[in-house]
Amino acid sequence: MKPIEHFFRKYFLSMVGIIILFLFLNAALFFSVLLWAKKSSDGSEISIHEVRNSITVDAAGNLVSTDVLNDRLKEYHSWAMLLDDTGAVIWEACLPEDLPRQYTPIDVAKFSRWYLRDYPVFVLEHPAGLLVVGTAKNSFVKYYSTYKEPYIRIILTGFTVMIAVNLIAVVLLIWWNMRRVEKAVTPILRGIETVSSGKTVSLPEKGELAEINRQLNKAGAFITKKDNARAEWISGISHDVRTPLSVMLGFAGQLEDNQALPTPAREQAACIRRQGEKLRRLISDLNLTSRLEYSMQPLRLEKVYLVELARQVACEFLDGGLQEPYTIVFCADRQSEPASIQGDEALLKRALRNLIQNSIIHNPKGCQIDLSVTHGQAGTMIAVIDDGVGVSAAQLKALTASASHIESTDEKLNLRHGLGILLVRQIIGAHNGTMHIESEPQKGFKTTLIFPS
Questions:
Q1: Which pLDDT tens digit goes with each residue over 71-94?
Q2: Which of these, 444, 325, 329, 324, lies nearest to 388 by C-alpha position?
């Protein structure tokens, strides 16, 4: 279930991320529009302080302005006037003809906040009176509003609450929709996991995804039927071959031991016996690997000391009449002596026998086989190393591939086999271990089995 939960958690977080990205995008667009508007409206204009500083009182008490003031006002389509305390115009520059030259206090109060006959105006105190600077009609928009402080506070608070409620609502809607999707998709994901593990799947064929469930049930049933047929075929063939093979081995052994027969005939009988035993081992490996693949081989778990296990396998080969061109060297470090796992001792021995047997089979001229047990950070490691012919890079790639068959490393026989390596991989995998293979042509072959601490 962890992959499924991870998938929906990632989906939910991605949707929240989309919302945050959407908010940032809108904020960026909003500020971009403000910046655009500001740049578009920015332009040269005459400052009211510039006009104020350009108007002075001479020694005779008359108001005078600089020579360039009129030109500046005309350039920016503006005008200016000064009003005394009675509201009379005592100085003017570029003042439109349609404007009066006398104003009441009420008139002054109105245009100081708003407009003077549609002319946007700005006022500033001057030592001689009230300075009024106006611009062209429709050049500025002036607003003046007054609100009570509680009104503004409530508006801002309500706006903040509204944004928060909208965000929470969107997140809840996404979560609700995700739960709906999860409810519909979870059975399908579970079904895929079940099918991938080789088990039968049965999903309810109803709802919006009924057709997908139906097809998945159909695929699961087909795969199960196909796997069962293959497993039954392998089991049947193994059973049917054992009896005639036992008869062949029995007669071949009798012929080999018959001293009355010529030596060439006895050697041929010995060859038949060895090849028959090899065939029997292959059939046994084929049956076992099939049972492991379909989880039909129960593990008889017990406490297994790995050093003792490897030592027993090495002794079996040495005591079983190992041929002269082959030698087996066993070693173990002190840290690995107490190392143990819960495992099937018979299967683990089978794995080590297969590795040693492979070194013997693929090095007909003989080799030294080192069987070692060491302890490291990754766990306890059992290594089977020979100094034989090794394999090419292409053959090593085939050996490390998790295929149902592996190209032969025996160029003389040129057979398709590799069940030994495949079986070892399955046995070690069933014990939560890993297998690594290293080899180069004429530099030997190394297989390392790693069991976690």
A1: 888 888 899 999 998 999 999 999
A2: 444
Q: What percent of the chain has pLDDT over 90?
A: 24
Q: Would the pTM count as exceeding 0.70?
A: no
Structure tokens at 70: 């009129």
pLDDT digits (tens, 9 = 90+) for 245-271: 888 888 888 888 888 888 888 888 888
Mean pLDDT of the chain: 81
Higher pLDDT, 388 or 179: 388
CB of 430 within 8 A of CB of 445?
A: no
pLDDT at 370: 95
Q: Tell me the HSE value of 67 on the side-chain side, using a 13 A CA sphere.
A: 0
